[in-house]
Write a structure and sequence with these properties.
- It is built from 15 helices and nine strands.
- It has 362 residues and is an alpha/beta fold.
- The protein has two domains: 130 residues, no CATH class; 186 residues, Rossmann fold.
- Strands 5-4-3-6-7-9-8 form a seven-stranded mixed sheet, sandwiched between helices. Strands 1-2 form a two-stranded antiparallel ribbon.
- Strand 1 and strand 2 form a beta hairpin.
- It is globular, with a radius of gyration of 21 Å.
- The protein binds S-adenosylmethionine.
- The site of S-adenosylmethionine has 21 residues, from loops.
Length: 362
């Protein structure tokens, strides 16, 4: 296994897209969402000056979500869309009706250029429309992400786009080279497996040499979906909360997979240390992770963060969801794990999208 072969597999799977346009398109998507948030706050709280408390009051935000308007204000101020006025902020340029029509157009154009299906724009527009009810806790983010139990938005976000295709195919290339500690076959543990967006790429390269693939998640909803989707006889489905349940698990595992989920751990270095303890001597940890919060997530991720166990690691006391690339590598190192793969290369256009594949060994 080499970085070059994983990168080649990923690039081939990403498909024929003009990747060089991706950084600009990702930025366009982020700014479109931010402009729409500004318009939503303007509609609820007027032209300002805005304070985090005042905007939370204007929306009648539920207690657990009251921090979110302040998080938006910080992002808007960072981008120069707000001007400081004492301890408050005022919109640098109030939104005009014609700008709002432009937001929808820009958002969908960027979405299409980045190769995401239309479900992504529909979801983002749905969250933007529902911001007041989300803040008041009258509708859950999960209900908007999985409307009526439908997984099409999740497929769009975690599978059916060039970035996910790149990461999942590179992950499969890495998994192809994992060797079993026991001749009966590989033992694999997947954490927070969700809709199985990464699992679906891994299983074809594990078929025929895997004794056990434990597909686990906090939510039984995903296990039921996976039972239908992945009928392979070596799969086991299990509710497992990786924030609490790992120390009791019976290792060793040749491969532990955590795709877009490890950031949910209240203490990432502790999680990685517990995973390291479960790995066979030649075992591998495969992580797919985000390394900064893109503005396009500002209408979704904060609502998932509200009310969770407070972060106890280097994110404690901050509003951060993710670790940076450097922090992920440091946390792996602290857990006694060596980084073997860290893709995409920082010089590649896909790097601008802030999601990475990290493969580590004991
Ligand atoms: C963004 S989704 C992951 C996507 C998934 N890996 C996929 O490819 O479809 C995050 C998943 O992590 C799960 N999760 C969050 N916190 C968890 C925890 N403490 N223990 C186990 N699973 C968790 C959620 O239920 C959800 O399915």
């Amino acid at each position: 296994m080499t970085a070059a072969s994983a990168d080649r597999a990923g690039t081939a799977a990403a498909g024929a897209h003009d990747l060089s346009a991706f950084p600009g398109l990702a930025r366009g998507l982020d700014l479109a969402v931010l402009r729409a948030i500004a318009a939503g706050v303007h509609a609820a709280a007027g032209p300002g000056p805005w304070t985090a408390e005042g905007v939370a009051d204007a929306f009648a935000a539920a207690d657990r979500h009251r921090w979110i308007p302040g998080h938006w204000i910080a992002a808007l101020a960072d981008e120069g869309m707000l001007t400081a006025q004492g301890s408050a902020h005022r919109l640098t340029a109030p939104p005009r009706r014609r700008d709002l029509a432009g937001v929808r157009r820009d958002l969908d154009r960027a979405r299409a250029g980045l190769g995401y299906p239309p479900e992504l724009s529909a979801f983002l527009l749905r969250t933007l429309r529902e911001l007041p009810r989300l803040l008041r806790d009258e509708v859950s983010l999960q209900a908007l992400f999985f409307p009526g139990g439908d997984t099409a938005v999740a497929e769009a976000v975690y599978r059916d786009n060039p970035l996910s295709r790149y990461l999942n195919a590179a992950a499969a290339d890495a998994a192809r080279h994992v060797r079993p500690a026991d001749p009966s076959g590989l033992r694999v543990l997947e954490l927070g497996a969700g809709i199985g967006a990464t699992t679906a790429d891994l299983l074809p390269v594990l078929d025929g040499r895997t004794a056990e693939y434990r597909f686990t998640d906090l939510s039984p909803f995903f296990l039921d979906l996976a039972r239908d989707r992945f009928p392979q006889p070596y799969l086991r489905y299990e509710v497992l909360d990786f924030a609490t349940d790992l120390p009791g698990q019976e290792g060793p595992f040749d491969l532990v997979v955590a795709a877009n989920t490890a950031h949910n751990a209240p203490h990432v270095p502790r999680l990685l240390g517990q995973v390291a303890d479960l790995l066979a001597p030649d075992g591998r940890l495969l992580l797919i992770e985000t390394c900064h919060e893109p503005h396009q997530s500002l209408t979704s991720m904060p609502f998932l963060l509200s009310g969770r166990t407070p972060r106890q690691d280097l994110r404690a006391g901050t509003e951060r969801t993710y670790l940076t690339r450097h922090e992920w590598c440091e946390a792996l190192h602290t857990a006694g794990l060596r980084v073997l793969l860290d893709l995409p290369h920082p010089t590649e256009p896909l790097d601008a999208l802030a999601q990475r594949l990290l493969l580590a060994a004991r």
